[in-house]
Model the fold of this input.
Amino acid sequence: MNGPAGIGEGRGFLILRRDGVLWGIDNAAVAGLTRRAGGFLVDIGGQLLAADDILCVVDGLKVWPVAPAVRRFCPDVAAGAAGMAVHGEQPLLLVDPRRPPRLLWLEEGEGIDGEGRE
Amino acid sequence: MIPQATKGAGAETSRGGLSTGSHLLVQAGEYVCALPLVSVRRVLRSLPVHPLPGSAPELEGLAEFGGEPLPILNLARMVNAAPGANPAYPVTIVVWTGPSDARELMGLAADAALEVVDVPPGSVVTGGGGGAMGDGGFLLGEAPVAGKVVRVINLEALGQER
Done:
């Protein structure tokens, strides 16, 4: 694989899980975090994303470009991903905050009531 | 099983090294596929895979290899092979794909790694069937090896976006 596209030294990434997939969001893009029934809401500047779980915040992820195989065989995910990385021994995808992946969108019927943590 | 040594019948040149036609034979469903050995980086016991919702069946998901995220493709699906018996020792073949100046690491999930053989370029019959998902050149052709037909894989074509 080509080398990492960038090393996010000094940058924090919020690591979350949604439908079994790990995602990372650049901390700078996160405006707020709210607990809700069954998970969390992540506000990325006006758009709310749904997470089943928030794992941690990590620094300095090595970021690789989204693999051609992912673009080819999983275009919906690739369209909303800004890169790939590894946290611990688990691969993850990085959210493109300008067009977050559909998998993270709030589904109809998913409540947004909860306790604020902003 | 994983071959103990990366050499097999016919794979050696007269000087004892591997030839440019050296290929790793792997079982993928009911097919035997030949991967160019020069593009094979490692053969591992099947890596844990994290599926991506909504992906095509060819993409099993993502794994971690050497600290890098690695997409894992199902080789049997890629060549439209019927499923075989439950593999006793499934493997992940880590390969280089794409052109040499922009190669990418990728994992191929297969039922077993078999042996290394020589597949001379002249023995490959191109344009044959198989037609893996309209295959985009991924299936180079078929070649006879020890009386059996193997599907010869073009890993350079695999790494290119279509």
In short: The CA atoms of residues 50 and 86 of chain A lie 21 Å apart. The beta strands of chain A are 6-7, 12-18, 21-26, 32-36, 39-43, 48-51, 53-59, 62-63, 81-87, 90-95. The first helix of chain A runs from residue 68 to 73. The mean pLDDT of chain A is 86.
